[in-house]
Amino acid sequence: MFGRLVGEGLVLLAVTFPVALAVGFNVARAGLSAWYGGTTLSVGRLFVCLAVVFVLMGAVMVAGMLVPALRAMRVSPVEGLHEE
């Protein structure tokens, strides 16, 4: 059960990450040009930041799904069906 929930979360993360990538690139480019007087955006720095963001988003997603998944696994199927 937990693996299925985490798998669905990872699919959602993979679908939304390209949008976050585009927004992050534009924000980084605008922020660097505004703060540092037109400093160019380093590709290596951008990829490191995006990798860190991806890992953090994944960790938050797993942590957010851990509590509901553990609660759902504690309920026996008979009890769950009995209340319906």
Summed up:
Helix content is 86%, strand content 0%.
What report would you give on this structure?
- The structure is a single chain.
- This protein is mostly helical and 84 residues long.
- It has one domain.
- It is 86% helix and 0% strand.
- It has three helices and no strands.
- The chain has helices spanning 2-35, 43-74, 77-82.
- Helix 1 (2-35) runs antiparallel to helix 2 (43-74).
- The radius of gyration is 19 Å and the shape is rod-shaped.
List the helices and strands and how they pair.
Blueprint: H1 2-35, H2 43-74, H3 77-82
By DSSP, the count of extended strands is 0
Straight-line distance between termini: 20 Å
Helical residue percent? over 70%
Work out the helix count.
3
Overall body shape: rod-shaped
Q: The biggest beta sheet, please? A: none
Percent of residues in beta strands: under 5%
Computed CA radius of gyration, to the nearest angstrom: 19 Å
Poorly predicted ranges: none
Summed over residues and divided by their number, the pLDDT gives a mean of 77
Structural class: mainly alpha
Question: What is the total number of structural domains?
Answer: 1
